[in-house]
Amino acid sequence: MCGIVAYAGDERAAEIIYSGLEKLEYRGYDSAGITTLCDGSFYTVKRSGRVLGLSQYLGNMCGSTGIGHTRWATHGEASDINAHPHCCNRFAVVHNGIIENYSAVKVELVARGHTFLSQTDSEVVAHLLDEYYDGNLIAAVNKTCARLTGCWALAILCKDYEGFVAVRRGSPVIMARGADGYFAASDIPAVAACAEEYCVLEEGDIALISRSECKIFSDGTTSVSRTFVPVEKEQTDGLGEDCPHYMLREIRSNARTIRATCEKFPLAAGGGLYERLRRADKIVLVGCGTAYNAALSAKRLLCGAYDGFVEAVIASEARYNPPAVTKNSVVIAVSQSGETADTVRAAGILKEAGAYLVAVTNTGYSVITRIADKVLPVCAGVEICVAATKSYTGQLACFHLMASLPDYSCRRRELLRVADEVEKLACDELNSLRIAQLCVSSRAVFFIGRGGDADVATEASLKLKEVSYIFSDGYPAGELKHGTLALIDEDVLSVVIICDQSLAEKSKNAVEQILSRRGKVAVVTTLKSVYDELESRVSAAWLLPPVPAHLSHFVSAEALQLVAYRTAVLAGRDPDKPRNLAKSVTVE
Ligand code: G6P
After folding, report:
1. Strand order, beta sheet including 471-476
2. What's this model's pTM, rounded to 2 decimal places?
3. Residue having the nearest C-alpha atom to atom 1 of ligand 1
4. Would you say 491 and 443 are in contact if contact means Cβ atoms under 8 Å apart?
5. pLDDT for 473-490, tens place per residue?
6. How far is the CA of 289 from the centre of ligand 1 (A)?
7. Is the pLDDT of residue 135 over 60?
8. Which of 122, 130, 106, 101 minimizes the C-alpha distance to 46?
9. Catalytic positions, please?
10. Is 154 helix (H, G, I), strand (E, B) or coil?
11. Cβ(581) to ligand 1 under 6 A?
12. Are 337 and 584 in contact, with CB atoms under 8 Å apart?
């Protein structure tokens, strides 16, 4: 949700910032901009569209200090004018977050003679800095922040200072240093190529950074030091002919993620986690999007393992209507990025109410890890595609292990066997393409299943709509007859997931009900008997590896991730960067 990069060093800033922005595009990609500072003058380029649109202008931007931004629009449409940086006299600013009181501040500034160019909330920051600046940069930043409500990560240039200021209030900022200078950014991938060490700015930190100095003020005035740790240079395979998109590459990493999550779990699971869960009066899972869908599966797994009442709640709801918890409750925040504002907020509220907070996350240095009592790592590695795939699989693996405490060795062996099946399945083209062809020619696609298959149906539907823009819905198969049947006709596809023998007869009833109304049906099943019975009667049937029902979500979810991917490609969409979406949603 907007990415910021700032640099002060010995090299040309424009190119360094541009490379950083390319790495942050998963945070928003509707417009981008860079300002460099050279001999007291600003050089700015900002354009609607992808970061790539800036590349042709970099050669004209001198200076070894600068700031850049890739935007996910909140206030004001995606346009050149609304793109960041926003400038006012001596100041240029990039912003990630929302300035909630921007409207009132703007009215006041306009009355004082300021002229605004954009419709953004962010532009007020540049004007306030200009208003408060009397030669003391940090004082102006402090006064500006004191006037604002909402959340922000800022990078600021001032023509009088050959460096930049980075500010963290509610939105993440890391600072990094390398041989050629200092950086600030929304996330580590932006600086991983050039920096050796990084530190995470704490809430309220203001950092004053030039090529030779880095001062951090914890409350705007008190100088503090933060601990720098080495940047882990993650090896990511490049895209190639056999893997033209990150989404496919990441689906193909599902197996590796299960194995890595199993490997790291023992280290993380100690410290009384089992006792907490065993004694919990209540276990509350919170998350958004795919993470919430993983929480639905987790609810089934944990319900079967522990005595306490288990519920899964959507974080944006829990944030305003939090479930009752006590000091004996365990709250599990599920988040790939660990940054999602709704999840962090809901988790914080429940922790404040006394609950023990566990974070299940793929990002070890994220906001959620800083407030959690315990962190359980999902070892998916950096996930670049906006639609979550391997992180969902890793979350499921983590929940299986949590549900098998204290002795999870047997489940671990099962997971490692499933990983082998998942690995083979990821190479499928024929079956996923067949169903994708049906999806792309349908007006709508419904995913249905019973029990654990219903949770996979919910996630499969989200995946398809995110990347293909085809209307879809996913829910328990039994609900079909209570409304959705009214929508079934020959242009609508229903994907029926049947992986639990004990529920197969009832799911087959749903297939009959759809076929009787001329609806198209695709069956995805781990059960040979179901496949043999339905294969000749439906538009497509996919027989998945015969894994036990309690583990089948690994293979059915992966199969439907492939279907979503191939549908997006057939429909001519960019699966890695779906329109209107962003990966880290840091606004509420
Ligand atoms: C955004 C993404 C979704 C993701 C959700 C939760 O909406 O587009 O794909 O599932 O955020 O993200 P998190 O990082 O908290 O798992």
Report:
1. 471-476, 444-449, 492-498, 520-525, 540-543
2. 0.90
3. 583
4. yes
5. 999 999 988 998 999 999
6. 5
7. yes
8. 122
9. 2, 583
10. strand
11. yes
12. yes
